[in-house]
Amino acid sequence: MSIQLTNITMTHTMQQKLTTEFIGTFFLSLTICTAAVYGSAGEYAPFGIAATLMVMIYAGGHISGAHYNPAVTVSIYLRGACEKDEVLPYIASQVIAAVSAAIVVENLLRPNEVVLGFELGTDAIVAELLFTFALAYVILNVATTESTSGNGYFGAAIALVVLAGAITVGSISLASFNPAVTSALIVSGKLTLADSWMHFVPQFVGAVLATYVYKSTQ
Questions:
Q1: Who contacts 136 (Cβ-Cβ below 8 Å, separation ≥6)?
Q2: I want to staple 128 with a disulfide (CB 3.0 to 4.6 A). Which of 45, 66, 95, 202 is the partner?
């Protein structure tokens, strides 16, 4: 009986985590697609995106860790702060949430509007690698380190990295830094599938590099 109760508890806990990851990634992607892809916020889009990410991190950090980003999930797993059996479910939840958000925006919030495509150059690879590295590096230091455990600024610090990145390289790479968000950009038509490797590859590479740099400095 105790084993059954433990399994039920574990299943319920995982459901809570995956639901939290879905909600956070959904609203992050919804904001990006509405404010940036369709341009509803104009030059203020980076601030709207950062604000959404920050509040969702504070809302879900105590439940799932508030990754909202497959590259971050991989980084945190390599750091040893995420269980192996959580990695693929987290990533699946994040990608499904991002794609769902893009579909909602396209069909319900901004129907009958055309999204202009964005052609990436090789400089986008550098931009995505550097700022995904910065994002993962900051997350590891402010949200997974014992010496900073319980701090109240982790959500703001993480969101500010995204804000800085969006302002700095948004015109170069679309400032995704997140494979789930990139999936939403593909579904929305902002980014072509053929160009998507210039997001996916540097995002995961940047996150992995951040983990090993983090480990070397601890």
A1: 71, 72, 75, 206, 207, 210, 211
A2: 202
